[in-house]
Amino acid sequence: MARKRKSSSRLAPIIGIVVVVIALTGGGLVFFLRMQNQLSRLPTFPTETYLTGENLWSLEDQEFKIEGRVDKVIMPSEDRKTTLVSVQPDGSKRRIPLLISDEAGKKTILPEQDLLFKVQLGSALEVLCSEYVTR
Amino acid sequence: MKNRYPPRGSLRGFLLLAAILFSPFHFVYSQSPTGPGSAPLPGPVPVAAPPVIASSSEKVEMERLRVVREAESVSRVEAAFREQVALLQKKLLSSSIEAGRPQSLSSAYPTYINLNASDVESAEQYHELLTSTLNDLIPKSPYRIVYEDETSDPKRALEKLEQLSRFREDENISRTIQAQIAAMRNNVQGVHVRVQQIQAEFEQIKEQIKVVERNLDIVSEPSRLTGAPASPAAIAVEMDKANKLRERRDALQKELKTLTGPGGQTLRKLQFQQLIVQLAVQKRYIHSLIASGFYRVFDFDLSLLPEAYPQAPGQGTQSPGAGNPSPAGATGATPGAPGAPASPQGDPAALAQAASPGAAAAPIPFIPTVTGLEAHLLTLVRDAMKDREALDNMLASGKLSSAESLLQKMLVAAPYQPELHTIPYEARQQIHEFSQSIRELSEALNSRDYTEMQRLADAIDEVADDVNMSDVRAFATEQSEKALFWIGQAEVALNVGDRQSMQTLMEAAKRHAPLDDAVKQRLEDLQEEANGKSRLADELRLLVKNSDYETVFQRRSEFGTLANSGSDPKLKADFEELIRQEEVVQTALKECDGLADRSSYEEAWLVLHDIDEELIKDPRVIDRQRQVERECQDFVSDYSSAVAFEESGQPALALAWYLTAFAKAQSSSELKDRIHDLGAKLINP
Predict the structure, then answer these.
(1) Predicted structure pTM score
(2) How many structural domains does chain A have?
(3) Cα nearest neighbour of A78 on chain B
């Protein structure tokens, strides 16, 4: 019987660690899902409308989401705080240039990445990305 | 973006353009310059040396300057040419008297030189008889082969004289000599008859005078029957009769004196001598010698007879030349004088002697004209024989120039000698043809017919050994080549656009060799080319004005030389620009076709769209662009939208459309550049 107690006392830290790990992972997952859920709730950026260049005033001051694939990383800004990226929205053959702030996401943006971008129009009708997450 | 021409294969296009511009047109002649500071061409002149490529406008300018110097040196070269022509003319004219100084020729020369062979045969027969006649009269005749074997025979000579008179060549000279001899003989007979007549009449008149004088005495006395005084009328009648008879007697005395006196005899002999001298002066030496021979052998020449030198009172007989011969003595010794007339009262000789005013004067010296003349004539005949021998030797050795000169001398010195008239027809024609060739050569030199000069120089060198025509031949060759050289320079002048120098050089070439076929042909070709270039220049200007680069490019080989001549820098620049434009169009079309073949329609469309603004309306470009556009309408729409937004100042939207278009044409450098530019503008405001 003593031998049985001894083995259960050894398993306790291991179980504890597993529980912590699971808890952290689950927390993170929950956080991620929450954030994704938040971006997913944003309206989809009207790509076609934007590309016509007409009535864009109605889109000002609104946040949109763009779900798409990174087509090309065009260039960083001179101060390295912004990166110009070409994105192909899902279901479209068009390309939208996004100005992504370096604070918008922690993951390095590379071509062929499928990302979800939170965007809004800038003063010069440029599409500014304030946040992005991996899909 | 449109300024980035050529967009692809720029180096290859440039090389092609350079090859087109320079390789076929920039031909210059690497001939030795003959500018003011250079020496005249020493030998054959390179006419069209292999062309070199003038790789820059500097070379064209150098060629232009060289051609100008060449044109300026034309007058100096032509002056030297005239001096050379004068020297050659002098040489040619000294080679032949007939060719050089025809005015100095005897008028009989052309007739003589063209006498045909039958005339020569007749002349040979005539001159054989003539010399035979001479041999019968002159013991020392040069025509006698062996003096000792032949004897003089005046009678036979007289018969031959008759035969000679039948020849046309004799021209009645022998007949004249015959007549003179006959006159001398007949004259002596006639004088004798006349003296007898005078003597008879003289006796009658003497009797009549006695009768008249007696009648006069009778009528002068008073009548013995009637005592009537004498009638004056009767006296006058008788006086008149007496006077008339005396006058007649005096006339007869005077005639007798003339007939029998020494003056009349000498006059007749002098007339014969005059004939001899006339023949000698006419240069009929053999005829003169024959007349002289007859004069001597018939003892007309008193100077050769011992009787011609009668003894002076108290002296013996003298040999000829020992004293002063007296015509009076000669007259008395004349064998032809048939008897002496009687005195004036009964002997006519005495009458004549008495009537002679010089009877008491000193004897008249007799000059032996014929003997001295005969010696001189023999010398001339011998000279003529030597000349003929020399002439034959010259002809045998081909010394035609010397032979012609000698022939001229013979014709002047002894025109009637058999040595001259028996020269064969072929030999005379040989000399004549030589003179003709020299004259034709001189004329060819004057007319600058170098081909004819060379032909004649060859012909003369072939037949004549005492003249050398190598300098004439070299001169002719050099001048033809010089003319061709000038034409070559004129071509260069045309190519570099120096029309004035071209005209100067062409005119010089034409003056230099006006009859040279090759020169004429090249001048015509060059003139045609020059005219064509004028038309071509007008055409090119019109095409430049219409910006018809396609036609200019198609005819670039025609226009290239003209445009690159440097005469019109603006035209050249316009030409080069049009060539470049066509090159751009062709390169773009070619590139477009290549991309379209690989289904890269978007990039093919961009190639044509990227072409120069002034070329975008080219029908070929428009047509090809439409064809390609049908295959990539979405791309064209994207691109057009991008351009429209860019032009309206909306770079974000323009960039969006460029990115969309670029997704369909990812190798397009133009799109890449535009995206980069707009991106930079957007991200770094």
Answers:
(1) 0.48
(2) 1
(3) B684
